[in-house]
Amino acid sequence: MTEIDLSKYKHDHSFGQDAKRSGESRTLIVIVITAVMMVVEISTGIAFGSMALLADGMHMASHALALGINYFAYIYARRHAHDPRFSFGTGKVNALGGFSGAILLAIFAIMMAWESVERLISPTEIAFNSAIIVAIIGLVVNGGSVFILGGDHHHDHGDGHNHSHGHSHSHDDHDHSAHEHHHHHDHNLRSAYLHVLADALTSVTAIIALLAAKYFGWIWMDPFMGIVGSLLVAKWSIGLLKQTSRTLLDHQAPEEVVNSVRHKIEEDGHSHITDLHVWSIGTNQFGVILTVASKSPLAAEDYRARLDLNQFPHTTVEIVPI
Length: 322
Known about the structure:
The protein is an alpha/beta fold. The protein has helices at about 20-50, 50-80, 90-120, 130-150, 185-215, 220-250, 255-265, 300-305; strands at about 155-165, 170-185, 270-280, 285-295, 315-320. It has a five-stranded mixed sheet.
């Protein structure tokens, strides 16, 4: 019996997750900086009696934790990118990390709000000068973190592996393309950038509260700003929960993405999609399963070629002649 060489038909599902991204190193640097400043602000907030300063420290703690989870997700996704147990690669590891971080953020928000209300009811003495100095230092540190994560417009390079599967009634048609170097947005890095930017804004509110309390006697401003800080954390956690849960539950891709697939497949006028599934499998990458009904159907690879393989690296096409 003649041995058949099937090597050219084989492929993996790493989708570029095996490539180290520049965001990893910068995220680690910001984690260290944020963690150090977090400890300083929380300890001095307790020592000086400033709820706004404590809230700012807790806010930094929440983001340090979130950034830590993201950094771990970077490493885990890269090291397990070729693990066959992950059917569509490790792109969802980042979403899982973000979901876990969002739950912890919600807990932080509740703790901050509770403590702020207690301070509002029972005010404590504040060492204004020391607290203001620490808050200003926190603002400088956060500003530096924004600069570190804000470089190169949040773009990153990765090795994308593109392939698809075409299915018809008579046979399965598989296409395997080589690794291709492509350029795309690193949404994890973008998310980290927005987190430290929020930290900087929270530092500003802490400074405003302390100055108002010192010079105008508005002691209530300090716990009030603590409540404002808790609301900011709560809002961010809710938004992150919504985003990551959609990915984890294989929510249908955004309408514009789904419509673009439909438009490109049906552009010839005689091909009609009767079933379409588009879901996220990684950063700016989507899996596609579709059924095409046509009186003059094309080959599966012809339909696949109409889609951008960088954006849709895993496409399965079922053809139904009518």
